[in-house]
Amino acid sequence: MVGLKKRATQYHLAHLYEHGRIDEDQRTPLTGGIGQPLLPGAQEWARNVIAPDPTCAKCLIALAGIGWEGQVSQEELAKLAGVSLRTIERHRPHLVAADLVTFRPVTMRASGTSGYVTGRRPDRFTLMSGLTAARLEGAAWDEAPARAEAVINRVRWFVGTTPEERDNGIKSVTWCLRNGWPEEALLRALDSSENRQAYRPGGYLSKLLRKLPVSYVVPAQQSHRGEFPERRLDCPVCDTPFKTRLPGNVLCGGAICLTPEKAVIPPSSTVYKIA
After folding, report:
1. Does pTM top 0.85 for this prediction?
2. For 130, which of 12, 97, 99, 243 could close a Cys bridge (C-beta 3.0–4.6 Å)?
3. How many angstroms separate the CA atoms of 188 and 219, rounded?
4. DSSP characters over the chain
């Protein structure tokens, strides 16, 4: 049926069985085998991404076989990608540097009040698009301090601070918002739902914010679905403020301006350049 000789067919069937794609009868496909994608869109996205090199592309497709995010050790990733552990150790930083995936360590802590780290579980990963969110402009830039104060108010552990510490926290969050960070991502990074007791809330807030990259990288799942963070811009033509989820430089109507008659220089006007 596939145009292969008997020996080659037996070899590839054994390979499929070894990787959990078919049952032991070497006839029945297994839908939940190792490397089977939980979300088909993830591997479709990974195959179309321009990776730093072919080995990174192979590793990215292997991660996408688990899903848009998940938990995997370096040994498991090496097995899924069909490469050595040394290759994974060498190429994993390349994927991180290209903003195509992020890894977060998962530690095991002792039970009780001590909370000592006793070990480490496989890292959690999230596939990233490599696209950074645009910086705020115009009216959205001016509104950032008020939005930052609203974000600070939702961080449950940021209490008992002095007015100076609170103002510094608002300034730090304002800087993140102006660099394209959405409020939801900042709240997740700050563990806003945790009702913990921070010894120095101002210092702990600064420590968490320093861990964040300068620009917000859009997760791959959001970019694949076209779900970019909402931002406020001023239309370059008519100067009208509007909200959009589209990436890059857009107009109030997306690719067109909805009110070109309000433009300072109408698009149809002749512009003379003075030498």
Report:
1. no
2. 99
3. 14
4. --S--HHHHHHHHHHHHHTTSB-TTSSSB-TT-TT--SSHHHHHHHHTS--SSHHHHHHHHHHHHH-SEEEE-HHHHHHHHTS-HHHHHHHHHHHHHTTSEEEEEEEEE-SSS---EEEEEEEEEEEEEEEEPPPP-HHHHHHHHHHHHHHHHT-TT--S--HHHHHHHHHHHHHHHHTT--HHHHHHHTTTT-----SSHHHHHHHHHHTS-SSPEEEHHHHHHT-PPPEEEE-TTT--EEEE---SS-BTTBSS-S-GGG-SS-TTS--PPP-
Convert the pLDDT of each residue in 204-255 to its tens digit: 888 889 988 888 888 888 777 765 666 667 787 787 887 776 655 667 776 6
C-alpha 270/C-alpha 275 separation (Å) is 16
β-bridge partners, 133: none
- State the DSSP code for 119: E
**Cα distance between residue 161 and residue 201, in whole Å:** 7
User: At a CB cut-off of 8 Å and minimum separation 6, what does 93 contact?
Assistant: none
d(CA 202, CA 167): 10
Give the chain's largest Cα–Cα span.
80
Looking only at the bridges linking them, the beta strands covering 231-234 and 241-244 are: antiparallel
Rounded to the nearest 10 degrees, the angle between the axes of helix 138-153 and helix 163-178 is 130
Beta bridge partners of 125: 70, 103
Q: Helices 54-66 and 85-97, interaxial angle, to 10°? A: 90
Give residue 50's pLDDT.
83
* DSSP three-state, residue 194: coil
